[in-house]
Design brief:
- The structure is a single chain.
- The chain is α/β, with parallel strands linked by helices.
- It has a single domain, classed as STAS domain (Transcription Regulator spoIIAA), CATH 3.30.750.24.
- The protein has a 4-stranded mixed beta sheet.
- α1 links the parallel β2 and β3.
- α1 packs parallel to α2.
- The protein is globular, with a radius of gyration of 12 Å.
- Belongs to the anti-sigma-factor antagonist family.
Amino acid sequence: MSTHVDHDGTVRLTLDGEIDLQVKDELDTTLNDVLASDSPGVLIDVTAVTFLDSSGIGTLVRGYRQAEIADKGFRITGAQGMVLRVLQVTGVAELLAAGPAAARSADAS
């Protein structure tokens, strides 16, 4: 997990490997910190994520809800393969604008 601040102040959070029960607390803390900062929002790059379970999905949805309350942006980008499929089946992909098209639009900005 790494963070980078884009030119507009948006925090780009890059995740890799498995997003599951073992890392959900770290992800939750990171999202809380970002959303409590002066950043206008967070862009979560999941291109290198190989596995996403229900605890990871729950953490992402909680982050999305916190961002809504704080009037900040929150988007997932780069979802592909099994990760994209899990997000689609659970209905979370559309909510978080996940998928390769979101990655292309993020890279263009």
